[in-house]
Design brief:
Blueprint (H helix, E strand, L loop, with lengths): L1 H9 L4 E4 L25 H14 L6 E5 L11 H18 L4 E4 L24 E6 L8 H4 L2 H21 L4 E5 L9 H17 L2 E2 L7 E5 L2 E5 L17 H4 L17 E6 L4 E3 L6 E2 L7 E4 L2 E4 L5 E3 L5 E2 L1 E3 L7 E3 L5 E5 L5 E6 L5 E5 L17 E5 L7 H9 L26 H28 L4 E3 L1 H22 L1 H7 E2 L4 E2 L2 H24 L6 E3 L30 H15 L5 E6 L6 H12 L4 H4 L3 H12 L4 E8 L5 H4 L11 E6 L2 H6 L13 H12 L1 H4 L5 H11 L4 H11 L5 H14 L6 H18 L13 H17 L4 E4 L2 E3 L2 H9 L11 E3 L19 E3 L7 E2 L10 E3 L7 E2 L12 E3 L20 E3 L20 E3 L20 E3 L9 H8 L6 E7 L12 H6 E7 L6 E5 L6 E5 L6 E5 L17 E5 L18 E5 L10 H7 L12 E5 L19 E4 L23 E4 L2 H5 L6 H7 ...
């Protein structure tokens, strides 16, 4: 052994000593007696002594760099305590005997698990030389690679890798991927998918690794002489490489991308795991990673480092390009996190992809669904962070020098293709000639094709038959040429002796003959491609297919059975196109758009153009002469004349068209808005094109809006049906409004659309008259986008005003003026922010109009030259404690001072702000006001939440314009006596305030005529025996309630508030039951009485046994229950049956369910539920008795997006599934939290 190590050292090969087995043999099995400490052949004492001896033996041998303590611990005896005990002993033994080598520790379960180290680190006397190792093969994951969706499986496996050892990289430990590999023969689905996932992860994390194996064959293995090692890089001759593409796939992994050594500025590579190549910045193809210019991936754009060029998508199946201005946003999507996707204008994702010649395209993203047969690897890319310059692979060069065939890899290990034959003078000379002449033929073909396309563009010319035959022949030849290319590598491998001879002369001769024959055929085709003309004029009267709207609904049987269901022009266009395609036995098919105020001269001109009657002379003829010319052309022909949109009678004889009858077989079809015109044209039984039926109208509208928009929120489909209904089945309105709404993805925008369309389309006599007010919405909505800050009118209701605000936000997001950080947060780009402040400052001329110093950590008001010109001030998130100034700000409208350390404001500060509309003083330490507010006569919005105020500011009740008052979390506020004087108040927020509602306060609130929204905190004892909520209007206004326990109660009685949206019940530790109390306006408890309740949180209510009252909240979307130690059921079957007359399916709209620290919880519901909207079931610690989930194989509509998260694998293993189909449906949704 010492001699082997020495010889390897002479060739600069580093060695890691590995303790594989104690009893010699082939490794490994669970029951081989060699698996774990204390097994028959694994004595820990002997093992420790042997490690010490080996470490001492190689002490001072420079090429021995590490010792792996034991390979693949396994078997029934493995346990964590013995692992720590003996592995730490072994590590200390090696270190004592040899201070120079790295100490490498393996995990459990065949070295696939190190998760037990996360909470319990290894303790050793030395530092700086401990390494952990991990093994990972495709079979480590069972058959999941072939039975699961590749993206999903890759994401799940990578999550296991992170939990089982990958986390060590974040803790600063080296992680050594000591064994991985694939069957080099190929053709294994498991291996192909696994290897792409592995190399992407390994490159991203710059993981150190060693490969199983270099070996070609074994002299003797398990009793077999010369056994092939199909995982080996070398072939059975120990000279050739077994798989020509494998070295390319690992070439990037052979480079050090990060860490110590020669460093450069941080840069990115765009790595393609399937090929091992990288996205080349110059050609935008795949190429060697060490030849690409560095990329920079910032703000989700891909740019060439230090150059003003970025990667741009050009639509599906088109090559990507570089641009200076139009930068596509590239985001990682799919569970594998290896799809780089941009979004089209229709919000459809396009992913980077690779074609057969390694060109980079943007194609529709593959395999995002559950399909297990789908192969996404061509679209797998990984953005790699690097700080080290790349070098060529050392292992690759060594293997290249071993084999006479190594030059088949080329200098950069690019797969050989026909164009690379020119690199080798010994290759067949005809191949180079064929390549050149084939390239010239393709270029000539492209020139001819462009000329044909250009001349056919107008529709008045068509390609010559001989040109079409020539183009088709080239396509056939190109396919044959590509087939020949596929065999080029095989033919080159047959050559030997520096390519002077062939191993199979006959096959090489036949191949050369094929090349020669193809060479002659290509030359012949090239000589035939000289055309004086490529098109001729389209024959007179041949029907032309007309453009038709893309989405046609309601016309599937229109021509064969019933006419109707689409617009008049659309119907006529379809008939025209049918004749154009089929001919129908007519010599001439003519289309004329007549429209209002059309003249005989105009109609004759349209018909004459179709018949070839052109030129100045014909234009100057009288209507009679032109009519004669048209008649002379048509009198012997069978024609069809389509007249679209006629407003008055068209005299066919004056135009020159003979009247159609059964004898001549001619036809005239026209559209008109007037039945009277039909009569004057001699039609006594016209076909009325009716508005669409409700179902057909919905189909058309749905296609116009798009499935993505309809699926963007649960409530949008219902609102969309209402919008479609406002269009009254009129196709034009459905199309226009549908296109308008296609980009609107917030539910507030759709609610506003329903509201606007309802108020605009009033008192109209007929369908045609209704289209104008309906279409008015398409134009007026543009004006509404500029309403801006503080200008939304609340007079028509708070909800409508909020919906308008959401629409404006949605418009700004779609215009890229705001960026959507997540579904609930938007942010503004710095440049847009500067522009937003520049515009109101008269384009920079009056910069002090808007003073914005948010988050600048200033301690006092900024110095301003002219306070009188200031319009808006934002000084939020600073360190201002005292404001002693009294600036004169007669034009100020907005003042934002939240999140400072304010404790005092001077009494004159608000004296000169008569136009102030918005004042935010929240999250400050204000405890009292020396100043008064009576001069703020225009104030509409005041936020004093999270302050220390005891009393409201003096003069507050004189603010008759105030509509919004936020006093949430004012824990010291004593009273709101006099609140009824705020006559314009619409919104009052008191949640978590010291002020609690009593009869006195409720009477004052009832005096507020405009109040719409109230949030309050209520003590559980307050609800006992009180009649606070008897007023129906207040019952609708109270929309958010927090309930806590001031005095212990066992039964909480909730009034049936139909306006309630959110309820939070917390720290009611003595509470045992929640009941619902009838109200004067809601006396029935057999129907839902919390008709608008969407969010419920119940925390630390220890006595509760169930939450059956939730049956009366049909719109509940979010439910969180935590810290209720006696809760047994969410819905009690016994109670449900006793309180309900009719069966109600609960949680119909539930989206999120969080259960935490509920030790007695056994059931959510006794039967499986459909859960049409559920997307997250979060089971946290402390729910050990919850085993049966209310799920079956049909539950949860969007199961692909559904997540069941649990704290650990044990929690998931406890789940008792309804049947095997249910388990298979939801197992991919299960995640460890």
């Amino acid at each position: 052994m010492f001699m082997v190590v020495t010889k390897l050292g002479n060739h600069n090969v580093m060695v890691i000593l590995d303790n594989h087995l104690t009893k010699s043999g082939w490794c490994c099995a669970n029951n081989d007696g060699n698996g774990f400490f204390g097994d028959n052949f694994f004595d820990p004492t002997v093992w420790t002594a042997a490690l010490s001896k080996m470490a001492a033996t190689f002490n001072g041998v420079s090429n021995v760099v590490g010792m792996s303590l034991r390979n693949e611990l396994r078997g029934p005896k493995q346990n964590v305590n013995d692992w720590f005990k003996y592995m730490q002993q072994g590590a200390e033994a090696v270190h004592s005997a040899n201070k120079n080598v790295l100490v490498i520790m393996s995990g459990l379960s065949f070295d696939t698990g190190l998760s037990f180290i996360m909470p319990r680190p290894v303790h050793l006397s030395f530092t700086g030389k401990l390494v952990f190792e991990l093994h990972w093969y495709s079979f480590s994951d069972g058959n999941s690679w072939s039975t699961n969706n590749s993206n999903d499986n890759c994401g799940q496996v990578l999550n296991r890798i992170r939990n089982n050892g990958g986390f060590l990289l974040n803790q600063g430990f080296p992680l050594f991927l000591r064994e991985f590999g694939i069957d080099e023969r190929g053709g294994n689905v498991n291996n192909d998918r696994y290897f792409g996932c592995l190399t992407g992860w390994a490159a991203e994390n710059d993981v150190d690794w060693s490969l199983w194996a270099l070996t070609g064959t074994y002299y003797l293995r398990q009793g077999v002489v010369g056994l092939n090692e199909y995982y080996g890089v070398l072939d059975s001759d120990w000279i050739s490489v077994r798989n020509s593409s494998f070295l390319q796939k690992i070439s990037l992994l052979q480079s050090t991308l990060q860490g110590p050594g020669p460093r450069t500025d941080a840069y990115n590579l765009v790595f393609h795991p399937l090929t091992g190549l990288c996205l080349d910045t110059t050609m935008l193809t795949l190429g060697p990673c060490n030849s690409s210019e560095p990329w920079s991936y910032t703000k989700k754009t891909l740019r060439i480092e230090d150059q003003p060029l970025c990667l741009q998508s050009n639509g599906p199946e088109n090559r990507v390009t570089m641009s200076r201005t139009d930068c596509s946003i590239w985001q990682t999507i799919s569970a594998s996190r290896m799809h780089l996707a941009s979004t089209t204008s229709n919000n459809n994702p396009l992913c980077l992809d690779v074609d057969a010649t390694n060109n980079i395209l943007a194609n529709p993203c593959k395999c995002l669904s559950m399909d297990s047969s789908c192969q996404p690897m061509s679209q797998w890319f990984k953005i790699i962070n690097a700080t080290r310059p790349l070098k060529s692979s050392k292992l690759y060069k060594q293997l290249e020098n071993l084999s006479p065939k190594s030059d088949m890899f080329g200098e950069s290990s690019i797969p050989m293709s026909m164009p690379q034959w020119k690199l080798y003078p010994q290759s067949p000379p005809e191949s180079s000639d064929l390549q050149k002449i084939m390239g010239a033929l393709k270029a000539k073909r492209d020139d001819v094709q462009r000329k044909v396309d250009r001349e056919e563009f107008t529709g008045h010319r068509r390609r010559l038959a001989q040109v079409q035959v020539w183009l088709t022949s080239i396509l056939t030849m190109e396919n044959q040429y590509n087939e020949l290319l596929k065999t080029s590598d095989v033919e080159l491998e047959r050559l030997c002796l520096c390519r002077l001879c062939s191993k199979n002369v006959k096959k090489s001769y036949l191949y050369g003959k094929r090349v020669m024959v193809m060479l002659r055929e290509v030359e012949s085709l090239s000589s035939q491609g000289e055309f004086d003309a490529v098109t001729d004029e389209t024959p007179i009267g041949e029907g032309e297919e007309l453009p038709i709207q893309h989405t046609i609904v309601g016309q599937e049987t229109m021509l064969e059975m019933v006419w109707g269901g689409v617009g008049k022009t659309t119907l006529l266009t379809q008939i025209n196109n049918r004749f154009s395609k089929r001919g129908g036995g007519f010599d001439v098919v003519i289309w004329v758009v007549v429209s209002q105020n059309a003249t005989v001269h105009k109609i004759q001109g349209s018909i004459g153009e179709k018949l070839g009657l052109l030129g100045k002379e014909w234009e100057e003829k009288s209507e009679m002469k032109r009519g004669q010319d048209i008649h002379n052309v048509l009198r012997k022909k069978k024609f069809v004349l389509f007249l679209d949109d006629i407003w008055e009678k068209v005299s066919l004889d004056v135009i020159g068209v003979r009247y159609p009858n059964r004898v001549n077989g001619c036809k005239v079809a026209f559209t008109t808005r007037s039945r009277e015109v039909c009569g004057r044209m001699g039609v006594d039984d016209p076909i009325e094109v009716c508005c669409l039926h409700t179902d057909k109208a919905w189909d058309l509208f749905k296609k116009k809006v798009g499935e993505n928009t309809l699926a963007s929120h649960r409530d949008i489909p219902e609102l969309a049906r209402k919008v479609a209904g406002k269009c009254r089945g009129l196709p034009l309105a459905l199309n226009v409004i549908g296109e308008t709404m296609a980009s609107k993805r917030s539910v507030q925008e759709w609610r506003l659309a329903v509201d606007v369309l309802t108020s605009s389309a009033t008192e109209f006599s007929g369908v045609e008259d209704e289209i104008l007010p309906i279409l008015k919405y398409s134009y007026d909505s543009l004006d509404e986008y500029w309403i801006g800050e503080g200008f939304i009118d609340e007079k028509e209701g708070r909800e409508r005003a909020l919906n308008q605000g959401y629409e404006i936000l949605g418009t700004l997001v779609r215009s890229c003026l705001l960026l959507e950080d997540n579904p609930n947060v938007v942010k503004m780009h710095d440049v847009v922010r500067e522009m937003a402040m520049w515009i109101p400052s008269d384009l920079g001329k009056n910069k002090e109009r808007c003073i914005v110093q948010a988050g600048a950590r200033i301690r006092e008001l900024p110095k301003v030259k002219n306070w009188k010109d200031v319009r808006r001030i934002s000084l939020m998130e600073n360190d201002i404690q005292i404001i002693s100034e009294s600036p004169d700000c007669p034009q100020l409208t907005t003042l934002l001072l939240q999140r400072n350390y304010l404790v005092e404001i001077s009494d004159g500060f608000f004296q000169s702000m008569p136009k102030l509309l918005v004042l935010d003083l929240s999250l400050n330490r204000l405890s009292g006001f020396r100043m008064d507010m009576y001069n703020l006569v225009s104030l509409r919005y005041l936020n004093l939440s999270r302050t220390y105020i005891v009393n409201l500011p003096f003069g507050l009740y004189q603010l008759k314009m105030l509509t919004h008052l936020n006093l949430e979390k004012t824990r010291y506020l004593e009273s709101l006596e006099g609140i009824s004087e705020l006559s314009s108040l619409r919104t009052l927020k008191l949640l978590d305030s010291k002020v609690r509602p009593d009869m006195s306060l409720m009477k004052e609130l009832q005096l507020l005529q405009h109040i719409e929204y109230v949030s309050v905190g209520i003590s559980s004892s307050t609800l006992v025996g009180e009649t606070l909520f008897d007023d129906s209007r207040m019952g609708r206004c109270i929309q958010q309630v927090g309930i806590d326990e001031k005095e212990p109660v066992k039964v909480l009685v909730l009034p049936a508030l139909d306006g309630l949206h959110d309820i939070f019940i917390q720290f009611c530790r003595m509470l045992e039951e929640i009941k619902i109390e009838k109200t004067p306006w809601n006396k029935s408890l057999t129907s839902p009485c919390f008709s608008n309740l969407t969010q419920v949180e119940i925390l630390s209510c220890n006595g509760l046994k169930d939450l059956t009252w939730l049956l009366f909240a049909p719109k509940l979307t979010h439910l969180r229950v935590a810290g209720s130690v006696q809760l047994e059921n969410i819905i009690s079957k016994e109670k449900a049956e006793s309180v309900l007359e009719d069966y109600i399916i609960p949680f119909h709209k539930l989206e999120v369910l969080v259960l935490d620290d509920l030790p007695e919880l056994k059931s959510i519901y006794w039967n499986a539920l459909p859960f049409q909207r559920l997307r997250w079931l979060h089971i946290l610690n402390g729910c050990p008795k919850l085993r049966k989930l209310p799920l079956n194989s049909k539950s949860v509509v969007n199961v692909e997006e559904f997540v069941i998260s649990c704290p650990d694998e044990e929690c998931l293993e406890r789940v008792e599934w309804e049947d095997e189909a249910t388990r298979l449906r939801f197992l991919p949704s299960c995640k460890e939290d």
